[in-house]
Amino acid sequence: QVQLVESGGGLVQPGGSLRLSCAASGGIFRSCDMGWYRQAPGKQRELVAVITVGGTTNYADSVKGRFTISRDNAKNTVDLQMNSLKPEDTAVYYCNAKHRVFNSNYWGQGTQVTVSS
Questions:
Q1: β 3-7/18-25 pair status
Q2: Residues of the chain with pLDDT under 50
Q3: Alpha carbon of 96 to those of 12, 15, 16, 69, 106: distances in Å?
Q4: pLDDT at 26
Q5: Distance between CA 10 and CA 92 in Å, rounded?
Q6: For residue 76, what pLDDT is reported?
Q7: What angle do CA 97, 100, 102 make, to 5 degrees?
């Protein structure tokens, strides 16, 4: 079992930056691919970025060059650095953990990011 707690959301002006953090408990963090997803009102949840157990990263086209995902296996955390934010980045951002062997999926409660002037 993995419990995920996100933090770092808030209100930011267009062009600004935010850093989201996700703290994982449960002891299997190192066996999980970690990802950030987002869901805007009236839209489906979509993948933003993922970092594998081995450190390989992948990003949605809409955030490439602006967002950076990183993980710290010693601290059991995964961060999402978001720069050059746009109004269309406004959404609830969710942390996700997917176990490599058992294929089990875990979600955090979400954190709101609002980009507005």
A1: antiparallel
A2: none
A3: 23, 26, 24, 12, 6
A4: 78
A5: 10
A6: 95
A7: 95
